[in-house]
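Subject: complex prediction, re-run

Hi both,

The earlier run crashed halfway through, so I resubmitted it with identical inputs.
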Amino acid sequence: MAVTSSTLTEKPHAAELPRAEGASVMVDGWYMPPPEDKDGRLWQRTTALVQAEPVELYEAWRDLRSIPLWQEQVVSVTETGASTSHWVMRTDTSSDKTVEWDSEILADEPGKRIAWRTIGGDVDQAGEVIFEPAPKGNGTFVTVLQEFKMGKLASMWETFVGRNPKQAVIENLRHFKAFAETGEIPRTQGQPHGPRGTVGDMKKGMYGEKIPTPPGSSVGGVS
Amino acid sequence: MKAVCWMGKGNVETLSVPDPVLLNPHDAILKITRTAICGSDLHLYDGFIPTMEAGDILGHEFMGIVEEVGPAVTNLKRGDRVVVPFTIACGSCAFCKKKIWSACDNTNPNAQLMEKAYGYSGSGLFGYSHMMGGYAGGQAQYARVPFANVGPLKIESDLPDEKVLFLSDIFPTGYMAAENAQIQAGDTVAVWGCGPVGQFAIASAFMLGAGRVIAIDRIPERLALARGLGAITVDYSEKDVDVLTALKDLTGGTGPDGCIDAVGLEAHSNELQGFYDGVKTALMLETDRPIVLRQAIQAVRKGGTLSIPGVYGGLLDKVPFGAAFGKGITMKMGQTNMHTYMKPLLERIEKGQIDPSYLISHRITLDDAPAMYKVWRDKEQQVTKIVIDPWATAVQADASRDPRVARGGVQ
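This time it finished cleanly. Structure:
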């Protein structure tokens, strides 16, 4: 083969890659890329360094009733059994329309890992979050892997909320981190400004500023 | 309240807008007593920073009296007098713990915009585009200050506002620029740009032991202020003056030990490269005009340090990276880690080592601000620094508008 035609993806002598397991970003010393989107299934993996102990963060994530405080557009999560819950999510910022689903916890390892999937309703998705100590005691790596079918949720989400569902996974982990580290979620909605004009209003959607910042521990005045 | 709003490129208006309210538990509401227009506000005025929107309240240099605090603010109370740093930091994330405050993880609600442009998001800033957080700024009568338990510096002495206002940005920024130049006792330091940040960089370079400071600009009143601080000045607009030759001549052919680019992305040049960058930025083929950066890389001595407090926003053309590598130089840059510098610099002011108010040439009202943006941009009326009293009437401000009356300090 001519030298010029060799490609960087060619690996004639490479060992076989180990298989990825869940949300992990590495296995046996190998970096694992996130799963590929295909056959109508979308994946989003995202990770954050949080200044807290893995067990504290596990407990915060596992507290289902507090999820509406930091996940975008989630109105309520109600426990319906030992490992099941009912979720209600707002779809349209200007009306009370909602999507609802039931969810089941598949794995629950205190201080380490939670995995879940939907078991009926408007949404078909599954996910996992893992909590791992960062090197040298520098906090905790929180890694989320979320899978969704391009169903009603994904399309409604994007149409009404103006947020790509993949970006919503990233933003939710960002909110979780801010809430865990500071006790609040940074926000600018509700602050004063001069007239935006038509173009400015259109751009709000582009910036993601149309999506209400989850309340965290806000003190009011939030639109 | 009244506030100075960005209404489009080259268009600033003073408008009546709603008062700010507490939104989060660590918020405070400040009644602003003094605020200033920064050189970097001109990058917004000239449309160089993306994600500004009509209606955005400008201003990131301000101080005032605490009006109201949120339930989680424990170190401030109503009536306290504070200076607010222009970068917002949470105090709890990995970066704040390392005291890299301007890289705070938790204060930019629009972090995804900056991640797309820069890979990672820095801290939120007041009044400096939606990409930088979209926070309403301080050229107004009131402002909401997030994480008020971390940022604002309490002023407990009776120093007048004008002596401490510049702790909000330009004094710490100039000081960090000098610190980033890694000055050893007796070093020669060259400073491009003798605006406010350049002035404080010059003063700070001397504080940190520089033996000689060379100041480069073209505006006579700025060069005069720099000479007043003890710098040797080079007017690059003078016929026959070549900056690189001047810097060689003034350093025994060695080059300055440290170079400070206090100009940033809107540099001017009479040479061909000035035309080149002008055309490319106008055609949106380049975002910044890195004329000073190129020159400073060329000028700094072998193994020297280049410190960059001047703002750059995007993609730069024709940067002589070979020269940077060939000479083995160090480059240090970035938004100021304000929270590290405010208290020590306040102590220097309290001890009388410096009176930052010497820079002020104009004292104005909020209603004067739109016109003054233009004056500042066009370098008219011998402007060196504009301070706004958000509660003054036109008559009160007018009395002190004459630069000869206004200027005090070290001159």
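Strands of chain A lie at 26-27, 30-31, 41-50, 74-79, 84-90, 98-109, 113-121, 125-133, 140-149.

- K.
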